[in-house]
Specification:
Layout lengths: L3 H8 L11 E6 L2 E6 L13 H20 L2 E7 L9 E7 L6 H7 L16 H8 L7 E6 L2 H19 L2 H9 L1 E2 L2 H7 L3 E2 L10 H11 L2 H13 L3 E7 L4 H20 L3 E4 L2 H4 L1 H10 L6 E9 L18
Parallel strand pairs: 6-7
Antiparallel strand pairs: 1-2, 2-4, 3-4, 5-8, 8-10, 9-10
């Protein structure tokens, strides 16, 4: 039987914005609690902590899947009253059934793949499986394959790069989370590594100089455009409301979708600029006729060789 600490280990394999791993866990009796770690927030790109809570939702979903797989029946509560700190609480009772087998196997295989994809179409039966992943209430998945809609999104991504990468604070924040060399990766065990971004490691000083001198909105947009055109489809994850509970529900739904993609050998990578910049979010809402619903995550999906995995801090470091 797996121990509760192992469920925490599976939770830490979840994706998170810039691989900040903005979580802490506690285990007491039959309960595991997940706390936000605001020391790992991204105040420039994520001023409301929206993506931080989406990341917590991803970790929660992995924990629930691992517990179900080990024969527990998890009872999840968001921010229960009477708790000393705001947390997500999972109470684990033994059950007769084990579930979530396929998704459990995918937890340690899932990763973000920022490579150029190979334009291959996703078979209709697989697309149907992706579109029918059960999402939390108020969360929906939209899969876009129509070229007109994709062209409009390319324009929004380009504009997102222009706005974000023209902001020195944004560039400073993202650069502070890039682990350029293997030694920086080993030291921090978090962040965006050169290898996971499809690049060769370089000494930190050289990487930072390269970021300052050569990396800008134009080159990023060229790469993003090429990558989008190489993809089989785009995906938008949408929520009816835009509050903490919805963000966690978006994270849980996204993780289920990402794990399902993994079972189908379909890769995914984020292009969240249009969800992060308020004026672009309004345009995306209009383009997709979402009414008052909120586009929360934008991704491309398709086929490519895997990339090296991103590091994680050992679960012992995130247990309090
Ligand atoms: C809420 C959220 C936002 C993210 N935003 C981006 C993004 O804008 N660009 C990107 O390349 N990756 C993005 N990612 C992917 C993370 O960088 C990735 O999950 C993290 O580096 C860990 O790598 P892994 O997914 O391969 O385990 C995001 C992930 C989450 C959960």
């Amino acid at each position: 039987m797996q121990t509760f600490a192992e469920f925490v280990r599976y939770a830490t394999m979840a994706p998170s914005g810039h691989n900040t791993q903005p979580w802490k866990f506690s285990i007491t009796g039959d309960r595991i609690r997940i706390f936000p770690d605001f020391t790992r927030a991204l105040p420039v790109v994520d001023p409301d902590n929206r993506e931080l809570y989406i990341s917590l939702g991803c970790a929660l979903e992995n924990l629930v899947i691992a517990a179900k797989h080990a024969g527990y029946d998890p009872e999840v509560k968001y921010f229960p009253a009477g708790e000393p700190d705001k947390c997500l609480s999972v109470t684990l009772k033994q059950s007769d059934v084990t579930g979530a087998g396929d998704l459990f196997q995918a937890i340690s295989r899932r990763h973000t793949n920022r490579r150029e994809y190979n334009k291959q179409h996703i078979p209709a039966a697989d697309l149907k499986k992706i579109e029918s992943v059960p999402t939390e209430e108020g969360v929906t998945l939209l899969v876009l394959t129509e070229s007109g809609a994709i062209e409009q999104i390319i324009d929004l991504v380009r504009e997102g790069n222009r706005i974000q990468m023209g902001d020195g604070a944004f560039m400073d924040e993202i650069t502070s989370w890039i682990r350029f060399s293997d030694s920086e990766e080993e030291l921090h065990l978090d962040g965006l590594t050169s290898r996971a971004m499809g690049k060769s490691p370089a000494p930190g000083w050289l990487g930072r100089m390269f970021m300052r001198v050569f990396v800008g909105a134009k080159s990023q947009s060229k790469t993003d455009e090429k990558n989008i055109r190489s993809s089989s489809a785009l995906m938008v994850i949408i929520s009816e409301k835009n509050d903490k509970k919805s963000w966690i529900d978006v994270g849980r739904s996204f993780e289920r979708i990402a794990l399902t993609l993994t079972t189908l050998n379909v890769e995914n990578a984020h292009l969240n600029q249009p969800c992060e910049v308020p004026e672009l979010k309004n345009q995306l809402q209009q383009q997709l006729a979402l009414g008052s619903a909120h586009p929360q995550l934008l991704l491309r999906i398709g086929y490519a060789e895997p990339l090296p995995r991103s590091p994680r801090r050992p679960y012992q470091q995130v247990l309090i």
